[in-house]
Amino acid sequence: MTTAVSIPRTGGSGGHAAVAARGRRIVKSYGSGETRVTALDQVDVDIARGRFTAIMGPSGSGKSTLMHCLAGLDTVTSGQIWIDETEITGLKDKKLTRLRRDRIGFIFQAFNLLPTLNAIENITLPMDIAGRKPDRAWLDRVVETVGLAGRLKHRPNQLSGGQQQRVAVARALAARPEIIFGDEPTGNLDSRAGAEVLGFLRRSVDELGQTIVMVTHDAVAASYADRVLYLADGRIVDEMHQPTAEMVFERMKHFDARGRVS
């Protein structure tokens, strides 16, 4: 479990924030007939720009499926999803691939770093592949934000797990994506390294204006967010603003072993 830290939140605004991504009547089903399983059931969701949103719920609640659909990594059975004003449902594969590359960042449990490249080469790799030159001032700011200035020439095997995940965070931030999606980004880290990475994600929202959506099962990790969405049975059943670990933990106790709300 991640170590609890009190994090001041200065990102976002007191009023209605602009929407970075939204979904309407999202349905995601697998199989057909009697074997049909509905992972997402008529979900409506707005993701505020410049804010940190956590998605929580029991195993099988649909939280990772929702994130994958919002990020264009999975298709929906029905419904519509937009990144800013671009509807991604129905986009051709080539255009969707370009949108994910240019406008979306990803952070996963697995660091997905290339062992033959050093930290800075891993950070700029997506832009190198796309033939884009990094904005040097922005790149320097990202590196400073995640605290990697002294480790840029080190390869992954010369870095700790927490440092490797910080490289992955910096890689996601470096291209200045409109939104970053993280699927259990601290799941493979010990509590200290996890707290470091979550702190850097929080700072990227507060200091860099980044939009982050993170799936997590950890109440402490969720407490770093501005808003927590709770899923059960493929639906959003509740949300919480300015959460604390204690508030999140108490809310999660109302889900039974099958993921239903008590």
TrEMBL record:
Residues 21-258 form the ABC transporter domain. Gene3D superfamilies: P-loop containing nucleotide triphosphate hydrolases. Keywords: ATP-binding, Nucleotide-binding, Transport. One of its GO terms (molecular function) is ATP binding. The keyword Transport applies. It comes from the Bacteria. Pfam families: ABC_tran (PF00005). Signal peptide: none annotated. This is ABC transporter ATP-binding protein. It comes from Streptomyces orinoci (Streptoverticillium orinoci).
